[in-house]
Amino acid sequence: MLKAGILGAGHLGKIHLRLLEQSENYQLIGFFDPNEKHAKAITEEFGYQQFNSLQELIDAVDVVDIVTPTFAHFDVAKQAIEAGKHVFIEKPITNTVAEAEELIALAKKHNVKGQVGHVERFNPAYTAVASKIDNPMFIEAHRLAEFNPRGTDVPVVLDLMIHDIDAILSVVHSEVKNISASGVSVISETPDIANARIEFENGCVANLTASRISLKNMRKARFFQKDAYISIDFFEKKCEVVKMKDAPKEPDDFAMILQNAEGIKKQIYFDNPDVPSNNAILDELDTFALAIQNDTTPIVSLTQGKKALEIALRVIACFK
């Protein structure tokens, strides 16, 4: 088992503490949080070992799970990597692309692995259909959330939209050609609602909307490709795959048949996979452990985290 420690024990950090304690791939050693009062309260409530400094935590573990505010990611990850420790970093990977590139270079130099916490890659609705998404040419994603003061220190693009950016980059195997976007600050000092149009070299177009001032939660994405339509509901953990094939000469009475202007007939049918129940955060942590143990590339590598950040920052740069 890999010895793991958590840096940052806020809302998400406490979830990571609980899940690492449950995992069969890690031995939870403890945590460090610079807020002494908060850290002490967590120790008293849950019994987790509290370290007095980041360096003490790093010295005691094999893997450092970084669940701090984004502005701290680079400095603490650099310290851990230079000590030869593997790092799991919550999204976004860092504040800047330059910082991300330096972490990637350091990880290679010190022969350690890193993974970025783009948890939607482990959402069961996504994993159930990811292999069926083949050369999509139009993608539409809506990620809407009710207002929560937590996270409003960064634009909604880095808070919410980056989840969909990462998912889309994982299935569109082409470079981004052009980005246009707009964002509006309604409550926060940074944009609370944003829309982006991402055009790829291969002709694919992705239209993304993110909001953190909605009246209801929604996390949906739709992928359109030749002879297929795939819908993913990340929030409800449901998916739908609608496909088309040449209609048989003698379709049965219940077959759904469409005929275009040229007289070509297509049959519509559903190919919905089973969606297993899982804990996406536990899965991402466990697959990282397996990548370390088997010396394979993590599912969401530092390089992929950097790419998602790069596109997110290009979206933000479009705002006026």
TrEMBL record:
Gene3D superfamilies: Dihydrodipicolinate Reductase, domain 2 (3.30.360.10), NAD(P)-binding Rossmann-like Domain (3.40.50.720). Residues 155-216 form the GFO/IDH/MocA-like oxidoreductase domain. Pfam families: GFO_IDH_MocA, GFO_IDH_MocA_C3. InterPro entries: Gfo/Idh/MocA-like_OxRdtase_N, Gfo/Idh/MocA_Oxidoreductases, GFO_IDH_MocA-like_dom, NAD(P)-bd_dom_sf. It comes from the Bacteria. Residues 3-118 form the Gfo/Idh/MocA-like oxidoreductase N-terminal domain. This is Gfo/Idh/MocA family oxidoreductase. It comes from Aquimarina addita.
